[in-house]
């Protein structure tokens, strides 16, 4: 069965407002989508049971899926205040399952576990809802295992799949889902969110929103961890002044090493938090011994193989953030080449003089080629080429 694709206009009026439904309050810059999904949740009689929510990184597609799930399950249409809404937000609702992998790929075993759940009747709510974040991380064989349940879901089950775009999933999946496309949140909407959620002033909020290029998570990272913004700007500064192979190799190593360090620190903090939560839930103090009956579950939290997979995944994510910064340089160079500053604002305004000088060295076709090379590097890393090797090849190719 083929479902329609729902694409919504991206306008200032559409992206700046807020829905009156509380579960939607954290969804930034997606007012038309929120209004549409709210209507569906309020009248679910003929609801599609397989959805594909698409949007670029940072657009909030996983948050949209979770809010939609809450609106469907909540007796008040997504009030955000009841036990149902609170449990869904905390990922503790028995009828809403979220697969948010911290691995490089989603495994067949994980998908089969979801399929078993999908066959079960909901325990306390109208629906059993399965959310799969980053469904594009499935190998074709894994996707084929899921296909039957997507095509003919149990009458009480709703599947909410999330991906960057419909083209990132197999045609057999996208032809069997109702597709909803999210817009890139406008800078002003992201800036307003930063001011309200982090307390940064308007100037900083607008700066971080611009540097993040519509990625809400990265904008929040810059607002809460200024060191991340400084590291981002360091990449811009070094690329526009790069003239020797030795500089390119050194910059590649710096980016890779920094990504590894950030990933290691973040995963260590996550594991410590998960272990502390496990102790709390089981009535154990920080120094209490783990009872034998609980020891295997506790040890699984910090299992070496699992931790290493999480570090690998996060290292790739941090490197990818660096590649997005790199692409913004050549985007700005192209804007200058085309005298389009009045139409397309520069991302890296703080480096206007340096990028203007750089644009004199980089020809228009070279700027376009650079963007293509960045895409190639991304594909190589996704294909398990050693990250440092891919970065060295990329940066040395960008000496103009």
TrEMBL record:
GO terms for molecular function: DNA-directed DNA polymerase activity. It comes from Alloscardovia venturai. It is an enzyme of class 2 (transferase). Keywords: Nucleotidyltransferase, Transferase. Residues 47-185 form the AAA+ ATPase domain. This is DNA polymerase III subunit delta. PANTHER family: DNA POLYMERASE III SUBUNIT DELTA, REPLICATION FACTOR C / DNA POLYMERASE III GAMMA-TAU SUBUNIT. Its EC number is 2.7.7.7. Pfam families: DNA_pol3_delta2.
